[in-house]
């Protein structure tokens, strides 16, 4: 799968290792090393944070592989125990807090990823953003409205949240960002919105308000046209890509701030000064739009070498994978039963 991504993109900007829960895979560090050996600029680890919380050395082991180009994509739905129980079936808020404490000690760049459900945790958006800003290791928050697919395909459509609604809630609840600070992302303005800020300790200074939003959405294809300022054109286009590491974000922020007379750019600006808000709406069967699907910025790599847009994977391909995994699970259960009864030897499942 890694080779398929490299063959398709040459030097991929971002690859996310996900699951399931990747950190409990017995060959996790081998997989990470295999990814490091390839010309991938930035690696993300998508995790529920449980191993990071329960094993303090795990974060240090991750840091020892090299902090540059590595980011933790930490599931963080709520600060409220009752909400995590509703969304995840377990009280995970303390686990998330401990995971963050260990990530702070290890100095690993982290993004908090919030699955937002209407009437469940959408009132916490501002609190989570302010909390994220107070954490030294956190570089931003990604807000993902629940996708009505897979295990949540029976949700009442009245509970759908859109990018615009999330954007308004950020403004109303955070006290940090205005409407002008959350703008469409050029690669797919229908489903992605982003805001950047300069972070100094726990202090946040939004930057996006100084840009003209029309310049981000009026261009052809996936480009931006800044008719009035060529330097802004270059820096804003780079900044408003989703394919960033914290280090490259810091470089782009520094370049952009030098072009904005309202903002003074510190000479030593680094990745700890980056703070990004990203809103990601994944389409489902009710709102699938082929034009937006063709512009999708997020893809699954499959074992047979295909790259499939996230939305279409969940709608059309995940049931097939779930059925395959169910067969494997059944075979494992049958083998365990045979072993327990003393009727068989060690039951090995050949890798599918």
Low-pLDDT stretches are 219-233, 256-263, 343-352
Percent of sequence in beta strands: 15-25%
What share of residues is helical?
Answer: 25-40%
Total helical segments? 13
CATH class annotation of the largest domain: Alpha Beta
- Rough shape? globular
CATH architecture of the largest domain: Alpha-Beta Horseshoe
Overall number of strands: 11
CATH topology of the largest domain: pyruvate-formate lyase- activating enzyme
**How many domains, in number, for the residues?**
2
* Sheet of most strands: 9 strands, mixed
Name of the CATH homologous superfamily of the largest domain: pyruvate-formate lyase- activating enzyme
Q: What number is the mean pLDDT?
A: 79
| Series of H and E elements | HEHEHHEHHEHEHEEEHHHEHEEH
Give the N-terminus to C-terminus distance in angstroms: 14 Å
Return Rg in Å. Answer: 21 Å
Structural class of the helices, strands and pairings? Answer: alpha/beta
Helices and strands, with pairings:
Layout: H1 2-9, E1 14-17, H2 28-36, E2 42-47, H3 50-54, H4 56-64, E3 70-75, H5 81-88, H6 93-106, E4 110-116, H7 125-133, E5 138-145, H8 163-174, E6 183-184, E7 192-200, E8 203-206, H9 214-217, H10 230-239, H11 246-259, E9 274-280, H12 290-294, E10 299-301, E11 307-309, H13 310-340
Parallel strand pairs: 1-2, 2-3, 3-4, 4-5, 5-9
Antiparallel strand pairs: 6-7, 7-8, 7-9, 10-11
Helix pairs in contact: 4-6, 7-8, 10-11
Short description:
39% of the residues lie in helices and 17% in strands. It is of the alpha/beta class and 352 residues long.
